[in-house]
Amino acid sequence: MATVSLCMIVKNEEAFLRGCLESAAPAVDEMVVVDTGSTDATMEIAVAAGAVVLTDTLDGDFAKARNRALDAATSDWILVLDADERLPEAAAASVRRLASEAGAGRHAFGVTRYNFFPNGGFYTDPVVRLFRRDPGIRYHGRVAETVAPSLAESGRGWAPSDVVLNHNGFSRPIAVRDAKLRMYLGLLQGRLDTEGDNPFLLMQIALSVRRLGRFEESLDLAQRAVAASDDPELAYLHGHVLRSAGRDRDALAAFTRAAEGSPEDGVAANMVGVLQLTLGDEAAAEQTLSEARSAAPHLDHITLNLGLLRQAQGRWADAVALFREVIGRNPGFLIDEWAGRLEADPHRNASNETIYGYAGLPFHLAYCLAMAEGRGKELHQ
């Protein structure tokens, strides 16, 4: 069986690190943690977990610190996580299977990351986090760092997988999140100044300023990105920017272009279904979401959105069954951070890959369960 090293960079993550290491332990044979200047108990937590702990300076260059961790790893494969991420229990076995069964021509795998907000809202993004330990696979980019360029340049490539991970970093206080976001924005702008109008950097900046409520600026940047490239991923992200600005029909068109450009991409098809439901076309949403679920059964949010469609139709027991299926596969959807619910976060719903008024899976499950059991009927009389 192939061996796997967990590689991380951290700074002042005592609130998250222990949970991350515990979730990853079944999937890995060693843990390498590079600390970039913690002043809390982060390093002690890593040492207690049995990790190899190194120190380095960040200096505004996340790739440099990540590559330091790669250099220290000794296993056949590398798994990369951040401290505020969790590997669901079922995903650990998938990591082991992928690393052990990968043929000689397979060098890396993408995973689907669920980014959760305190009320249970979420968005996904594909990230390459499992790859062979290979001196030719390195991180690039001072911020928004990734190994994808080195894979492409060397002809290695990567393939999607059924592995998912949960990111709970948005449960941090809004002030902390926004300060970190503004720091990233500065670094992204620095990359843009150096690299020119890279469409993917433009879109990253568009999504970032959108989270700060700067929707007109976001629209302009996103339009520049899609004008420079017809990549389906950019069309998909453009859909989210358009939706944030209340342009639902334009968003549906963008998501449809993305789904047509990547027919195997259940993430794009999911958003087509969500927009169809938003615009009142339940029959179309039914067909789109059902087909997307069949094509990408590991994407639990498609099943969740089918459950919300059942709720809209008053099919309470069917909704309950679908919601319970999601929870059984990924309990991360049960997130409900009370402290986060007390903060005003008016732009949170702009990121949701579900309906605008989604209130978190615990709420929808409890409501549909009550209705299925005949309680609360007076609400609909």
pLDDT < 50 stretches: none
Helix content: 40-55%
Order of helices and strands: EHEHEHEEHEEHEHHHHHHHHHHH
Structural class: alpha/beta
CATH class division of the largest domain: Alpha Beta
Globally, the shape reads globular
End-to-end Cα distance, whole Å, is 60 Å
What name is given to the CATH topology of the largest domain? Spore Coat Polysaccharide Biosynthesis Protein SpsA, Chain A
Kindly estimate the percentage of residues that lie in beta strands according to DSSP: 5-15%
What is the helix tally?
16
Q: Based on DSSP secondary structure assignment, what is the total number of beta strands? A: 8
Number of self-contained structural domains:
2
Strand order of the largest sheet: 3-2-1-4-7-6-8-5
Largest sheet: 8 strands, mixed
Q: What's the CATH superfamily of the largest domain, by name? A: Spore Coat Polysaccharide Biosynthesis Protein SpsA, Chain A
Quaternary structure annotation: single chain
Rg value:
21 Å
Q: Tell me the CATH architecture of the largest domain.
A: Alpha-Beta Complex
Give the overall pLDDT as a whole number: 93
